[in-house]
Amino acid sequence: MARQNKDSEDYVDNKEFFKAMKEHRRLILKAKRDKTEPPVVSDYIGDCIMRIAQRLSNKVNFINYPFKEEMISDGIENCLMYLNNFNPNKSKNPFAYFTQIIYFAFVRRIQKEKKHLYTKYKAIENAMTSDFYENVGEDGQVGAPSKYGSEYSDQYMREFIENFETHKNKKKAKSKKKKAVSLDKFFEEKSTNE
Asked: Is residue 190 part of a domain?
């Protein structure tokens, strides 16, 4: 992948960004010492965060989502929430710090939207099932059930539901296994200590 050109409009100069974050940190500490209102985030820092979020949203793993604007908003909001946690004494790379915050905000938004879509698809599936049974005549003949979409969208919806439920069950099984292992260790430690 080609490196970003310094003349690019979404380029963030990490050295300048670091200087701005150091200054912001200094003002935060001064406000705490003086027990005054914390300073407002500078336009430069806000602009850098927006550029990082915008650029990350155009990466291959995030570009085709219809809720891209919500992802960007979540990323920016999370950066502002954790802005004061950036410590220039521990890291000299605010670009990486905020990129990681934005990345995980994007992932959380995708998971949230998938859960919402699962709920919607499940409701449609249940409605299709009830329509099917409503169309069964007295003679046992099945009438034409109402369609909520094309054959392709019905198949996609069923596959999405199946994949979502499979993933959910795997997470539950993994969580149960983890709890069982930790309980076993607890009982082992207790029996050896007695």
From this structure: no
